[in-house]
Specification:
It is a single chain. This protein is an alpha+beta fold and 150 residues long. It has one domain. Helix content is 23%, strand content 17%. The protein is built from three helices and five strands; from the N terminus they run ββαβααββ. Strands 1-2-3-5-4 form a five-stranded mixed β-sheet, covered by helices on one side. Strand 2, helix 1 and strand 3 form a beta-alpha-beta unit. It is globular and about 35 Å long. It starts with a strand and ends with a strand.
Length: 150
């Protein structure tokens, strides 16, 4: 579900089933990426996604850095190609902390989506949650995320 929040940003809320569930929809992340692409094409607002992604991302890096070669995309096509320095300037950790080190395919889709749309995972980066390594499910995994533009 997508909602425009007072001309400030677009809020997307979601739920997806675990990739081992009979309800799992393999095209979910393709459809989500298409939605984000359409929204970015229609308006010049930041995007915030939150919900149960039911996806393990471990500590994979989702922040594109001009300093590193990236296997997902070429930084020349990005609008804000150096979010790495943006986060540093805002005193937001560039690397994520996470007790849940499990990485699954849908988690890799999240990381690719973040890189392609210049989004970052907020969990464990700001506020009282900063560097805490909190879990979001049964005190053992992080599958619920807040994802937005830096």
């Amino acid at each position: 579900m997508w909602n425009k929040v007072s001309d400030k940003f677009i809020l997307g809320t979601l739920y997806t089933s675990n990739q081992n569930s009979k309800y799992y929809f393999p095209e979910f992340f393709d459809n989500l990426s298409l939605d984000i692409s359409n929204i970015k094409g229609d308006c010049d607002l930041s995007i915030m996604l939150l919900g149960d992604f039911d996806s393990g991302t471990g500590t994979l890096n989702e922040i594109y850095s001009l300093k590193n070669n990236d296997d997902v995309l070429d930084g020349s096509i990005l609008q804000n190609p150096d979010n790495f320095n943006t986060l540093k300037r805002l005193n937001i950790p560039v690397t994520r902390s996470n007790f849940d080190l499990k990485i699954i395919d849908s988690g890799r889709h999240i990381i690719e989506m973040c890189k392609c749309f210049e989004l970052c995972i907020v969990n464990d980066r700001i506020g009282t949650d900063k560097n805490i390594c909190s879990t979001t499910c049964a005190d053992k995994s992080m599958i619920d995320y807040v994802i937005c533009n830096p």
